[in-house]
Design brief:
Layout: H1 2-9, H2 11-14, E1 21-28, E2 34-43, H3 49-68, E3 71-78, E4 85-94, H4 97-102, E5 110-116, E6 119-127, H5 129-133, E7 137-143, E8 146-150, E9 153-154, E10 159-163, E11 168-174, H6 182-205, H7 211-215, E12 220-223, E13 230-232
Parallel strand pairs: 1-7
Antiparallel strand pairs: 1-2, 2-4, 3-4, 5-6, 6-11, 7-10, 8-11, 9-10, 12-13
Length: 250
């Protein structure tokens, strides 16, 4: 993972530094894409300004290597809660599982598509022997839609955690589905708004009816002999003037 990658870049410098914390999160998606975020903290007093400069140059080089593997990586030196510690935050993501495995030679990460109890699933395995050998404090959280089986601590909500694991970490999981992006959602809403506007306009117009047809009710077959207004056949009184109408002759 990228946290181990950063630790490997400063492996010699980290020896004897005291407590070095590597905390990272990995999310797998159904379409094969992935996202990896990490935080690495170590005592800043053990590194000289030149050490930090060399470290960040190597991080820039690692960023370019990720790009060559059709993945993206970014990093920044963040403000640390403790003035005695340096804190780096890293983020990487890719569109294919192959780029995840290629970028994690030290972590020996493998991800395979399998069938689990008749369901399509992924099986992830990772060995973290390097971090254990160096005595680093290592924590990995894996996020998925559902964890079907693992040797970590599951939260029942699609995540599993390993802390300073011994041996191989593994999990059988159903990956997450990516949500609709903001750009796509806004485009859909814009099209829907146009459609509703057109429908509202057409409904407001209604069918075209000649003025003559609107002037005389459809049922009016005669006129009041007193006020001249149309009356409905069979009515005993005029609806306009109220006077009694003469009998209607067929």
């Amino acid at each position: 993972m990228i946290a181990i990658a950063l630790a490997s870049l400063v492996g010699v410098l980290l020896l004897g530094c005291g407590s070095v914390v590597l905390d990272e999160e990995l999310t797998l998606y159904r379409d094969g894409s992935w996202k990896n975020e990490a935080a690495v903290a170590f005592p800043s007093s053990s590194l000289t300004p030149i050490d930090f400069e060399n470290l960040e140059q190597q991080l820039d080089e690692t960023t370019r290597l990720y790009r060559d593997m059709n993945a993206r990586m970014s990093w920044k030196r963040a403000s640390s809660p403790s003035p005695d510690y340096a804190l780096y935050r890293l983020s990487a993501q890719g569109r294919e599982l192959s780029s995840l495995m290629e970028s994690n030679d030290m972590g020996h990460v493998t991800v395979k598509e399998i069938e689990y109890d008749g369901r399509p699933a992924f099986r992830l395995e990772s060995r973290n022997s390097w971090a254990l050998e160096q005595g680093l404090d290592y924590r990995l959280t894996l996020h998925a839609r559902e964890i079907l089986e693992s040797n970590g601590v599951e939260d029942g909500k699609g995540s599993v955690v390993w802390e300073n694991p011994r041996g191989t970490m593994y999990a059988v999981l159903v990956p997450k589905s990516r949500g609709v992006g903001w750009a796509t959602a806004l485009a859909v809403l814009a099209v829907a708004a146009v459609i509703f506007a057109v429908l509202a306009y057409l409904r407001s117009r209604g069918p075209s009816v000649p003025m003559a047809a609107r002037a005389v009710p459809e049922q009016a077959t005669s006129f009041c002999p007193y006020c001249g207004k149309p009356v409905i056949a069979g009515m005993p009184f005029c609806g306009n003037c109220g006077r009694e109408l003469p009998p209607h002759n067929e």
